[in-house]
Amino acid sequence: MLEMRPDCERCGADLPADAHGAFICSFECTFCAECADAMDERCPNCGGELMDRPTRVGAALKKHPASTERKHKG
Asked: 46 is in which domain, residue-wise?
């Protein structure tokens, strides 16, 4: 199950689990759309492709809440 990390690792922007606009690689490194575009949709950590992260809403989000651990390295 995805962690649904709460922020962009590059700029620290909030990325709620129930909103579009987050991009992840296969290791779940997480970036906002602006940073993903700036990095040509490549993860700076592993070199993997950044893809749209699916949202988690409603009962699924309530039962499996998003992570609260921030990963911004700023």
From this structure: 22-61
What are the tokens at 5?
């990390």
> Structurally, how many domains does the chain consist of?
1
Neighbours of 3 (CB within 10 A): 13
Phi/psi of residue 42, each to 5°? -120, 135
Does 9 map to a domain? no
What is the tens place of the pLDDT at every residue in 18-46?
A: 999 999 999 999 999 999 999 999 999 99
CA angle 66, 72, 74 (to 5 degrees): 165
